[in-house]
Amino acid sequence: MAQKITLAYIAEKAGVSKSAASQALLGGGGKTTKVSPKTAARIQQVAKKLNYRPNGVARSLSSGKTYSIGIMFGGIHDLYHMELAMNIQQLLLKEGYIGIYTSWSCDEEFDKACNAILRHGIDGIITAHPSGFFPDNIPVVIYKSKHERYDYVMLNSEKRIEDSLSYLISLGHRKIGYADNNRKSFSDAMKKKAFHINPDWIIPCNGFLQSGVKAAQHFMSLSEHPTAIIARNDTVSIAMIAEFQKHGIMIPEDISIISFDNMMISPHVTPPLTTFDCHSQRVAELLVDTMISRLTKIEQPQIRREVKSELLIRNSCAPISGIKPKNLAKFKTNAPGQLK
After folding, report:
1. Which fold has domain 68-156+280-307?
2. Separation of alpha carbons 110 and 119, rounded Å
């Protein structure tokens, strides 16, 4: 009769205790286990050689955990969030967890999505929805913005808007439009520069492809359009550029466009996007590390982290005709995808 491959058998073959084998195989051998990475790797190698598959049900019963994390980002059509979710999934797997992804497009859908994902008995939630209501016993990590209660990994959107304006101003632009929902931050930044704000040049935008198309159509319907536009993200920029080009408006010759995210595709569109690199991989690492830290030690001070973004100058922005760009030295200009 063939030898039944049990956890005890794996431990015997690896020369470790059953407890160590359990920690390495059921805990993933990551930061949540007490065995060394070298020992965990040896145990996992033995298990792989013997084609051992841990019993997930037994694991959950013994630990009281499901080893699953809810990943909740708004809109399946937000390409950056899809990239980020994939990075988070891969990092969670290394820690012995699985990610369960869900999305929504409005607050009502968020509540339904949240209730659905909670039915899976998840151990924690990573989300970009700062105003959601979550059970008190579920650790939550917020992405993008600060939060009074939950751990967070934030991006400074106000500074990115100010830096976008500074760059466009250095190219001679004064007629600047805005396609995003953060109207106040844009208005405040424009006032700091003592620039006139044209309300027709500010349009709400939810970050999806279709909202970029509608934004471009709005700007084209105006008797006077801006010479440059700050877009919510690269997804919106790509949609706007395609719609403008379809109607004979050239980017950046007629309108310059700058945005945020630096998606994998951003250097490869025509023209390559000038954008702020939000460091998707680094953000994913911090989100997962924060979640694992909270799960490992529930009672600890709030974890607050910030990711700084940097401007990557490519080819979707150009100087106003007849104006020599100023103070460009402080901006990064050797971004991948930049045409020489």
Report:
1. Rossmann fold (3.40.50)
2. 14
Per-residue pLDDT of the chain (340 residues; tens, 9 = 90+): 456 778 888 888 899 988 888 878 766 444 445 788 899 889 989 988 888 776 655 555 555 678 899 999 877 677 888 899 999 999 999 998 999 998 887 777 888 888 889 888 899 999 998 877 788 889 999 998 899 999 999 998 889 999 999 999 999 999 999 999 989 999 999 999 889 899 999 999 988 899 999 999 999 999 999 999 999 999 999 999 999 999 999 999 999 999 999 999 999 999 999 999 999 999 999 999 999 999 999 999 999 999 999 999 999 999 997 666 666 555 655 454 443 3
CATH no., domain 7-63: 1.10.260.40
Q: Which CATH number fits domain 157-278+310-330: 3.40.640.10, 3.40.50.2300, 3.30.56.10, 3.60.15.10?
A: 3.40.50.2300
Q: Please give the Cα distance from 108 to 317 (Å, whole number).
A: 38
C-alpha 44/C-alpha 301 separation (Å) is: 34
Residue 168, Cβ neighbours under 10 Å: how many?
25
Residue 113 to residue 104: CA distance in whole angstroms? 7
How many angstroms separate the CA atoms of 282 and 24, rounded?
Answer: 26
Domain ranges of the chain: 7-63, 68-156+280-307, 157-278+310-330
